[in-house]
Amino acid sequence: MKFDRRKFLQSSFFIGFAIATKKGWANKLPTLAIERRDLFPQGVASGDPTANSVILWTRRPPEQDSVAKKLVVEISTTPEFKKILAGGKAHISADSDWTCRFLTTDLEANREYWYRFVDEHGFASRIGRTITAPDDDSDAPVRFTFVSCQCPNEGALNAYRRMIFEDEARSKDQQLNFVLHLGDFIYEVTWYAEDNPNGNRGRRIRNLYKFPQGRKVSNFHLPVSLEDYRTLYRAYLKDPDLQDARARWPFVGIWDNHEFAWAGYQSQYVAGGVYNAPAQNQKVFANQAWWEFIPAMVQQPGNTSLEHFKAPVVVDTPMEKFNEEGLSEEPNNLLAIHSLKIQRVLRWGKNVDLLLTDNWSFRSPDMSTDDFIIPEYPRVDPQIPFEIMNYGRHYNNDNPPDTIRFNGKDIPNPTKDVHAQTYLGSEQRRWFLEQLGASTARWKIWGHGFGTMELRSDYQNLPGELGSKWPKDVGYAVIDNRFLRDKEIIFDFIRDQKITGFCVVGGDRHAFHAGLASKALPPKKYEPLGVEFIVGSISQQTLFEVLEVTMKKDNPKRVLNLIDQPDGTVIPSMNVTALHGVLSTLKLKETGDMEQARAVRNPDVAPHLSLVDFGGHGYGLVTVTSDQLSTEFVCMPRPLERSNRPDGGPLTYRVVHRTHLWKAGEAPKLEQEILEGDPRYCI
Ligand SMILES: [Fe+2]
User: Fold this and answer.
1) Nearest one of 456, 510, 507, 516 to 481, comparing CA atoms
2) Is 500:662 a contact under the CB 8 Å cutoff?
3) Tens digit of pLDDT for each residue in 546-563?
């Protein structure tokens, strides 16, 4: 298969933006203006840089008696803003919630620019900084951070403060090119303090906003209207650390689940087992609000003018049938999920193609695993039934079994004739493979909501002392593994096309994982074809924190996740369970010593993983050169409150993983180095 890169990577459809150019603006003096940050309460931002363009963003809502309908954007090559290089004009209105997007063109590659917005009354935004990508034929190194899962309503975004502090201290040629946000930029599900006087699972609720409409379900609230979704972005973007980060670097964003729905699929809204309803209108509202607040080179199919979001008219309609690829062809669903397309490819010189996918709009409905639950072992799935059901009718090369053996019984296979679970959908998967095959960059980096790596443990090796045994013949305990058929098709393609330099960066899991990406693990064929890094959350609760707050101290299974120390601290043994297996965890409990724990590890549990941390927060820092990719995990303690330190507070550890560009047919390898702190229970 041969691909013409040009054919796939053109982006000439962005003709409707307000455009800022040099023509008529170069060398002008800046407008006389007074900086009034209060009139631009969400600050400024930039997004999706190319070698010669970047999108600039602000919001100028009516404040007290001051209404503005026109904005001028000014771009300068110096932070002092002595002279203008380029500029443009745009109208703003309530239609787009007073947000504004400028596509600035004709810029030079791989350099800094400064920009600001001035309204017709002479009031200016703060000055933002942005950076263009290197030229297509440049060998320049590329540096970026990747993040996910932030909730200023229940935590602090100290990670951004740390990121800024460290970048300011670097020499110019070592500074970041951009920030990749992998989603959960907002959390739509909201706990109000008045309903939860003791906070939410140990977190203090700030009550940063209330939904104008909203829907109360159980002890939390969900957005309903466009104004509800906008309310989330407006409140989040008032966070000073997030706002400073957006003003310092261009951001590249995709959404994860919470930009629309806690646990939805396509245009179905699902929340916490207590709410499940068709929500085509809400999907369109969520997409519109994302488009308004996240500056990105994204397309609304059929709308060449992107100055305004054209919301399709939809009626909330149940999705009753799913085609053989798991897609509902119900017309309202199709309209809603196609109202914004965020999958795209961005390039930084010869070194990086960044492939971005939409992991939620096309996903199939979740299968029910009720028949295969092991109540004594919550939060894990028995491997073999899980895999049979995840593959549906495609299991075992399209030969699924009639029954599934479980707890000594043969249970009819409920997914024998059902589509495989998918998150990409067939059309996007095809597009992704075309992009990957066409990429000529040395490193093909997939910005992936949640990553592809499997996490599991060998509960089948548990001795009797923890009470009930793990069922026979179900294989490993799956902690996290998703969408096996998508994974198989993509990894087989990478192997067959001899693609090298494949790297996945993921979020969503509220955990740090570093390792090698492979379709399968032992006893199946383990064949690493890329490297993968999952980043811990910026602020949202980790699984370790949740279990620390909720798991009973006398639960016999507690040791698999948490080991209580005499001084009251808790060892996150869940990392050890996933990395080395249950015998290592039990040895750790007995001796308190990781050396002895590692000595009895089961090498088959996780041959692909070199770091697992279910309790850390922070960000990942990727540095890419022509022959090496390194990813540093900058891990910070639980951000319960905002740090008053200029560096954002202390670090827990800093660990880097490096890989050299491998040749076709070779397996990638990761080297690990601990740069700072103590990650002993994570490696
Ligand atoms: Fe999240």
Assistant:
1) 456
2) yes
3) 999 999 999 989 999 999
